[in-house]
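Holo prediction — coenzyme a persulfide.
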Amino acid sequence: MVHTLPEEQRHLLELVEGFVANEVRPRADAYEREDRFPRELWDQLASMDLTGLPFPEDIGGSALPYRTYLMVLDELGRGFAALALAVSVNTLVAWAIDRWGTEDQRQAFARPLVEGSGIGAYCLSEPDVGSDAAALSCRATRDGDAYHLNGVKAWITHGGVASSYLVFCRTGDVGASGISAVLLEADQDGMTILKHEDKMGLRASPTAQLALEGAVATPDRLLGEQEGIGFKVAMSALDGGRLGIAAVSTGVAQAALDVSLRYAKERTQFCRPNIEHQGVSFLLADIATQIEAARELYKSAADRRDRGFEVGKVCSMAKLFCTDTAMRVTTDAVQVLGGVGYTKDFPVERYMREAKVMQIFEGTNQIQRLVIGRKLAQGS
Ligand code: COS
C-alpha cells in the first residue's frame, strides 16, 4: 500500500511511467484497432493497486491525495487514453457510492470498483437528454418492496463490460429534485444493451445505449436509501470526474508533444533538422507552454479539492482549459509531422481523434463555461 509521503509518490509515478512504457503504449494501437476493451491492462492496474488511489482504506483504497491520482491519470493518458478514461469513469462511480452510499453500499458496490475486481458505469444521459441533465425521463416506479426501472440510457462508457451501473432515474416530479440514483448489477434481468456506438476514436473504450425494461431494484439499491438526492449525487461526482478528464487530456497532449518533438529532431529538410526551422520550433514552443499551463491548472484545482474547498468552478475551468488545449495541441502535432501525421503510421492522428471527444463528454465545454459564468455571477 502506498503512502502519502512525497518520496513514495515519486516512486509511484515512476512505477506508472515504467508500466506505461513497457506494457501500455506498445499495446494501445492493437486494442484501438480491434475495438477491444483493454481488460488485461485493467487487471494489471488492479494488481498494482492503481484503481483506487484516492479512496479511503476501509474500502480498499490507498488514501492518496486527488492531486497524486490525477498525476497518475495524466501519465496513463500519455500512454493510452482509453485505459486512463476507464480509471477516471470507474473513479467517478466509486466516488459517488463512497460519498453518498450507505455503509453496506460502500462495501458491496464501491469496494469492488476501488479494488478493480469490478468496473463501474455512470448512467445519466439519455437519447433526448444530454446537457439538460435535470430533464431526464428514465423512471423508477415503486411497487411494494421494489423499484421497477424503465427507460433508455445513452452514451454509457463501459456499457457491456461494467459490473455495476449507477443509474439516474426519476422517482418524483419533473426537475432536479425528482431524481434518484439506483445501483444495478450487470447480469440482472430487464437491462439490455441496445447498441454500441461506432465512434471516431477511443474505440477501446466501449460506449453503449442501455434499455431498462422493468429492471428490479430493492430499496437497498437506492443510493443512500434516499429518494430525490440523485441530481446532487450526479453533479458532485462530475466535479471530480471533470478533473479526471482534465488530467487524461493533458496526458494525451503530452503524448502528442513527445511524438512531434522526436520527429522534428529526426526529420531533416533544407539541410537542417526541422526543429531548427523557426516555423516548427515556434509550434512546439506553443505546444509545450500550453501543456505546462494545463497541468498546473488541474493540479491547483486538485490541491484545493484536497484541502476541502468548494471546487465546482475550478473543476469546470480545468476541464475546459485542458481539453481545449489537448485539441489544439494534437492538431498542431499533426501539423508538425506534416503528411505522415495524417496517416496511421504515427499515433498523432489518434490523439487528435481522442482529444475531440474530451471537449464533449462529462459536460460539453459550453456547459463548463455556463457553470463558470454562473459561479462568477454568484460571486463565488
Ligand atoms: N454539486 C452538488 N450539487 C449541485 C452541483 C454540484 N456540483 N451543481 C448543482 N447542484 C445542485 C444545485 O445546488 C441545485 O440544488 P438546490 O435546488 O437544492 O439548490 C440542484 O443541483 C440543481 O442545480 P441547477 O439549478 O444548477 O441545475 P440545472 O438544471 O440548471 O443544471 C447544469 C446545471 C447545466 C450545470 C447540469 O445540468 C450539467 O452539468 N449538465 C451537463 C451534464 C453532463 O455533464 N453530462 C455528461 C454526463 S457523463 S458523459
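READOUT: Residues 124-125, 131-134, 155, 176, 231-232, 235-236, 238-239, 312, 361-363, 367, 370-371 surround coenzyme a persulfide (CB under 6 Å).
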